[in-house]
Amino acid sequence: MTLDVNKEPGPLRIASDGASETQRTLHAKFLPYLRQIFEAHAGPKHKWTASQAQAFVRDVQDGDDSTPAAAALLGLPDVGLDDFLAYMASADSAMTRPWSTCDLSWPLASYFISSSHNTYLTGNQLSSESNTRAYTNVLLRGCRCIEVDVWDGTDSESESSATSSSGGDVGGTRRSGRQGTRTTRTTRKSKLGTLKEKLPGFLASILDKTSLGKKIAERGGAAPTTGQREPAPASRAEEPSQESESEPEVCMTEPRVLHGYTLTKDVAFRDVCQAIRESAFAVTDLPLIVSLEVHCSPHQQVMMVNIMEEAWHGLLVAGPESRPDSLPSPDELRGKILIKVKHVPPGVPAAEPDSGDDDDSGDDDDAAAAKGAKQQKPSKIIAELSRLGVYTQAVSFKAWTQPEAQMPTHIFSLAEKKFLEHHERRVPDLFEHNKHYLMRVYPSGLRIRSSNLYPPIFWGAGAQVVALNWQQTDEGMMLNEGMFAGTGGYVLKPEGYRPHVRSKPAPAPIGRKTLSLTITFLAAQSIPLPQSDTSAQRFHPYIKTEVHADGSNHLSPVNDGLGHAGEYKARTRTHHGRDVDLGGEKVVFDAIDGLVEELTFVRFTVRDDEIGRDDLAAWACVRLDRLGQGYRFIHLLDATGAVTEGAVLVKVDKTLA
């Protein structure tokens, strides 16, 4: 790249700081600042010597001088402005330092794993669609643990009842006039009523008070989906369509994927498995965990096993000849799919499944269950399916002392509220368990809009699999991006969070540091507009910076899982338009102590300053240990998490002691 300093340069291309190093356009808005930076370090001939270039890379940027971009710069006898601009247009200048592959030879429980909750959903928890694209989406974004809720299949007549009830056709005859209007109105009301009947009382009362409940009442939705659908209209049942007659019976009765007891639409389990195969290792070959929540009869579970073995042939992890005494490493499981499914001890008979949630949910955590009956109850999971859970055997949590808690291959699943209760009352037990064994945490059932829990608190207590609703771009998903961007979905836990392993150095205590951070904002370009806006003339952006330090102290109170909101945050003044001269504004965070670098995050949000709620326009998030120093570009994602051309030039001064 060459740029003539005497004329307006063409667009630069700059690498992203996330999982993809896609090049993005950077226009001339930044040139005055970049020229000023160059001149501040140049000699009288407006050139850099090799030693001046090396001092900039090492001392100002605290950069790696072995990267291709740095090597090209440092290999020049003298450096001009064009050469400097080429370096600044490389990935070396991104706010997030490039990911250096972590040691992948530790046991599986020694890693944080990028995870999804109710992966099949495309929107809210009550009335959104389920489809295979949701799986493709999260897998291409680096997710390494996905969830599949499986229910018994139904025949084609029942499948068509959802579309007929919402589309206005019954038996091929379209309703019209007052009768149709009256019927539609009745259907909408009945669907909301049916949904409320299916929900627990406390959720139904909450639904009444939300705008989501009003939307369902206004728009109607799919037929309620439970273990079995409501029967089809009589005319459809008596006169099945020619299309349904031509379908092979195996397709009509295979298991399906959906969110039970809601209005969400289903998708075929076979289609989900095929979509997973196609994208499982498109981005990384690190192992993929498929978390099954099974609501199927034994017969349908046999179908599940057959479908998975067919769709994932050659990818399913093989069990060892004897019971394993430790978990394998991600490195040993490359290119493999691990099934997380309920553990069934040998000799336990199968029983028909009930209609409730999967046993491994851990929602109840009954004290009585910890005492338990001495007789083993029949399992709702057949042995053939349970055997697929080789290294991720789901066990219902009852007590930290239950025998299964010592199985190397067990995994507990806790809802966020239950986890936080243990965080308050039994945090040493919680933390010690998570040093050695796997734990999955998932959002509360009250989050009907698919909002997310606050993940640093759960990572800080050692939970490996913190499952999030990826269809929602909120604070939780932003922090998840900060943790896992570009990593392949596996991040080694910090010192003090891992077990003693004979082949590894002796365990070290948790390393804590004090942070002083100053960020100087220079200029921004191509800031995306909020989703609801179309005019840059009415756009008044400001940039808020937050330091999320909550995950650093696993012994501290957790404020109901919300984090210490507002403790470390600052913002710029309000500006105008999408291309902004920020004028060197500074935000300062002084002497924040007790931090674990790997569990601390710096988050930037760009919002539109307006009356009422300030809409989100763009954002970026970085883990503290990956926050580059010196002159950096913050690459902005839009409100949906999509890559944009937006960028902010800043100077980062970071001191850790």
Identify the notable features of this structure and list them briefly:
657 residues; alpha/beta; Recoverin, domain 1; TIM Barrel; Immunoglobulin-like; 3 domains; 11-stranded mixed beta sheet; 8-stranded antiparallel beta sheet; disordered N terminus
Radius of gyration, in angstroms, nearest whole number: 27 Å
Share of helical residues: 25-40%
Shape: globular
Largest sheet: 11 strands, mixed
Would you tell me the overall average pLDDT? 82
> How many structural domains in the coordinates?
3
Uncertain residue segments: 1-11, 15-22, 156-188, 221-251, 354-374
Q: Give me the CATH architecture of the largest domain, please.
A: Alpha-Beta Barrel
Under the CATH scheme, which class of the largest domain?
A: Alpha Beta
CATH superfamily of the largest domain: Phosphatidylinositol (PI) phosphodiesterase
Number of helices in the DSSP assignment: 20
| CATH topology grouping of the largest domain | TIM Barrel
How many beta-strand runs? 25
Strand share of the residues?
15-25%
Please report the distance between the alpha carbons of the first and last residues. Answer: 39 Å
Structural class of the helix and strand makeup?
Answer: alpha/beta
Q: Largest sheet, order of strands side by side?
A: 10-9-6-11-12-13-14-15-16-5-17
Word description of this protein:
Residues 385-498 form the PI-PLC Y-box domain. The protein has 657 residues and is an alpha/beta fold. The chain is built from 20 helices and 25 strands. Strands 10-9-6-11-12-13-14-15-16-5-17 form an eleven-stranded mixed β-sheet. An eight-stranded antiparallel β-sheet has the order 20-19-22-23-24-25-18-21. Helix 19 links the parallel strand 15 and strand 16. The chain is globular and about 85 Å long. The two termini are 39 Å apart.
